[in-house]
Specification:
Layout lengths: L1 E7 L13 E7 H4 L12 E7 L6 E3 L20 E8 L8 E2 L1 H7 L8 E5 L16 E2 L1 H9 L4 E4 L13 H8 L4 E3 L11 E7 L8 E3 L1 E10 L1
Parallel strand pairs: 5-7, 6-8, 7-9, 9-10
Antiparallel strand pairs: 1-13, 2-3, 4-10, 4-12, 5-11, 11-13
């Protein structure tokens, strides 16, 4: 039987230390909910969490850019679970485009309905100025992925649109084709294979444009 290796691709978020807002306020349960009795000295708490929808490793829905687009609660579970192809672009430099020829060269194994994960090697720059100036996907490369009928695209970077532009053509292209996007993956260098089983579940909250996720990859590592 093949052994399974679970690789956590999600970033640890630390309150008050993130690029976007993340604050936690802690209450004893009897302070928060009337009628609840707490024995003196017991640690029995609830918390208020105030955060940006784009905190840490997160998924973005079409509603992020399209007023009539689906929000995160409407993303099909099938779109965020399944076979994922890892495309290695760690050789790319800051502010360099991933061209159509380059993505064709490494993406020949992409099948209809795959999730595509771009390994840019950019997670090491998290929370630095360099972090927001990573390699980006050219529009031609993005159009090619749409034609391949992929169901979700993720990366280990802040953004796969060109940082210098506010228009975000890749976001709009994918969202217009109902393709959600995942940003801020990490630990991709720990993956052994170029094809894995991937899971990234968003919170089921109506009206959210994006949601933090716990993203994991499951891969075979041999025989026992």
């Amino acid at each position: 039987m093949k052994k399974k290796k679970i690789v956590d691709l999600s970033r640890l978020c630390i309150p008050n230390q993130e690029v976007f807002r993340l604050e936690i306020k802690t209450f004893f349960v009897d302070e928060y909910i009337s009628g609840i009795q707490r024995k003196k000295g017991d640690w029995y708490i609830v918390q208020d969490v105030t955060t940006c929808s784009h905190i840490g490793t997160h998924i973005e829905s079409p509603y992020h850019h399209l007023k009539e687009g689906k929000d995160v609660s409407e993303i099909s579970l099938d779109q965020v679970m399944g076979e994922a192809v890892i495309l290695d672009f760690t050789y790319k430099k800051s502010d360099e485009p991933i061209t159509l020829d380059e993505i064709k060269k490494v993406g020949s194994s992409i099948k209809t309905g795959d999730i595509v994960l771009l390994h840019l090697g950019w997670s090491k720059y998290y929370n630095t100025k360099t972090h927001q100036c990573g390699p980006y996907l050219s529009v031609e490369a993005g159009e090619w992925l749409v034609k391949k009928k992929v169901k979700c695209v993720g990366s280990d970077s802040f953004d796969i649109d060109h940082a210098a532009g506010a228009d975000q053509p890749i976001h709009r292209l994918f969202f217009q084709n109902n393709i959600p996007m995942i940003e801020e993956l990490c630990n991709m260098e720990s993956l052994i294979h170029k094809r894995v089983f991937f899971v990234a579940l968003p919170l089921k909250i109506k009206g959210m444009d994006a949601s933090p996720i716990r993203a994991v990859a499951i891969e075979d590592i041999g025989l026992e």
